[in-house]
Fold this sequence. Notes:
Blueprint: E1 3-7, H1 12-23, E2 27-32, H2 35-44, E3 49-52, H3 61-66, E4 76-79, H4 94-122, E5 125-129, H5 142-162, E6 168-174, H6 180-189, H7 201-213, E7 222-225
Parallel strand pairs: 1-2, 1-4, 2-3, 4-5, 5-6, 6-7
Helix pairs in contact: 1-7, 4-5
Amino acid sequence: MTTHLITGAGSGIGAAVARRLHERGDDLVVVARDAGRAKELEARYPGAGSLVADLADPDRISWALGQQSMPETVDSLLHIAGIVDLGPVAELRPKTWHQQLNVNLIAPAELTRLFLPQLRAAQGHVVFVNSGAGLNAHADWGAYAASKHGLKALADSLRHEEHAHGVRVTSVYPGRTAGPMQVKVHSQEGKEYDASRWIDPESVATAVITAIDLPRDAEINDLTVRPGR
Ligand SMILES: NC(=O)c1ccc[n+]([C@@H]2O[C@H](COP(=O)([O-])OP(=O)(O)OC[C@H]3O[C@@H](n4cnc5c(N)ncnc54)[C@H](OP(=O)(O)O)[C@@H]3O)[C@@H](O)[C@H]2O)c1
């Protein structure tokens, strides 16, 4: 049985990935921000395990997980949770920087560190859902883009480090994808939101699942997914 540890399973891209993996009978362990959310997700994906960790507070993740029973096997670690808060550098305060760096970069690094023993034992796979902003930074996207550029660096370093242990590492770089995050982005941009203009989260889920399902003779390092219309 394949076990996937997944963040962001409650919404958008993560929910699409979790639903597809659950439907095909794989084992899921969801990382939820609090106990209430963990209960909701266990009800949504019957049979799934959960771990409670607030990714906004990476300093406490190790302690929080130390209070819970950890999965013995992890075949894939899917980092999909993320947050965005736009603003020009002239106005971004440290709190806004810290929030995005914590959830989008430092928490994935810490979760990866904590689960590397299981991933090495399984010759597993780490997937980072990055963003087009992890490759190009535009006006008003400084803090988010910095967190995602950092996430690219994390993935690339990890790939070099863990290759010898048989751990595969993939970054997926989606363009704008319909869902709650884009609703917020449009509101901050003062633009009208039209979900039909953007990538369906199911399509990004297909990219993620393609990467983890690839036979072991090959590894997808980087996958860019752009809106098709
Ligand atoms: N949407 C886009 O246009 C787009 C484009 C490129 C890249 N991405 C990236 O794709 C990923 C998923 O985006 P999405 O559109 O699916 O976003 P979303 O619908 O807003 O979902 C974000 C998920 O992250 C979780 N999360 C946020 N803060 C957390 C915290 N402190 N602790 C634990 N979980 C936390 C949320 O948990 P709750 O469910 O509990 O709120 C939610 O499940 C993100 O990394 C994002 O940066 C998105």
